[in-house]
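TICKET: design request
STATUS: open
ATTACHED STRUCTURE:
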């Protein structure tokens, strides 16, 4: 079985056909720029370009960088406020006749890792942390997802200024580039985020994902975290694979 997986990100929207048995991409990814501002009409246009590229008429799974409930967007902190309330799957069905399913992007990445990647046989509480524009989190107990847990928005004290700010703004991947932090300094900040998760949830495992994990040799050993850490297998494909896997079970409209 093949499903079109789509990962909506802050700078690009990527799509690829996924073989659901192997959890692997079939052929090349196709990427379009995320429109700015990313208002509903522009987002629908970008998704339409992806359906058109693949001449797709099958099932679709979409990972979205915000909270989603029942295939409706609840918020979009790094995209556009006007997306809140958008019934994306319903709109896609009305316009393109395609059945689809919506899931938070970090939850999608976690689904891919737990099903096909480095979380495959993990029991107990596993948290996947995606490090990108935002700090995403996917929480799983014995492989079962507890959706929409948003650790990136926890308020934490910034190391240098002592000001309370959202963790993703001061400890995430965007903070590393914005403040031009070296790996030592960034690792200390990111460790604050990890230690917070551990002090409240006591996870059995933490998996780190996002493009930055291709440079794990630069920071993994510098992290200070009480829980065992592993690196996601899928790097930047996890969102696509997980969104497709989610669509196999939760499609809108249901048949
Ligand atoms: C959003 C999350 C998302 C994460 C990674 C955060 O700003 O609130 O929903 O998973 O960024 O994209």
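STATUS: resolved
RESOLUTION: sequence designed for all positions
ATTACHED SEQUENCE:
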């Amino acid at each position: 079985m093949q499903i079109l997986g789509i990962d909506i990100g802050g700078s690009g929207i990527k799509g690829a056909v996924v073989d659901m048995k192997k959890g692997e991409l079939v052929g090349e990814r196709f990427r379009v720029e995320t429109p700015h501002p990313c208002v509903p009409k522009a987002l629908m246009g970008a998704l339409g370009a992806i359906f058109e590229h693949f001449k797709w008429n099958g099932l679709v799974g979409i990972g979205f960088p915000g909270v989603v409930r029942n295939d409706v967007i609840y918020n979009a902190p790094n995209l556009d406020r006007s997306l809140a309330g958008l019934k994306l799957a319903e709109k896609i069905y009305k316009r393109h006749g395609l059945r689809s399913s919506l899931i938070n992007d970090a939850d999608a990445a976690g689904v891919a890792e737990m099903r096909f990647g480095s979380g495959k046989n993990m029991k107990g509480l596993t948290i996947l942390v995606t490090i990108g524009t935002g700090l995403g989190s996917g929480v799983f107990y014995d492989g079962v997802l507890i959706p929409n847990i948003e650790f990136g928005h926890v308020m934490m004290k910034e190391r240098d200024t002592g000001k309370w700010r959202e963790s993703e703004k001061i400890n995430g991947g965007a903070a590393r580039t914005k403040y031009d932090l070296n790996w030592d300094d960034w690792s200390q900040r990111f460790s604050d985020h990890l230690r917070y998760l551990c002090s409240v949830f006591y996870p059995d495992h933490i998996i780190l994902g996002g493009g930055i994990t291709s440079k794990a040799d630069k920071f993994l050993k510098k992290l200070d975290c009480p829980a065992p850490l592993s690196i996601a297998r899928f790097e930047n494909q996890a969102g696509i694979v997980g969104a497709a896997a989610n669509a196999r079970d939760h499609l809108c409209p249901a048949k």
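CLOSING REMARK: The mean pLDDT is 95. The two ends are 17 Å apart (CA to CA).
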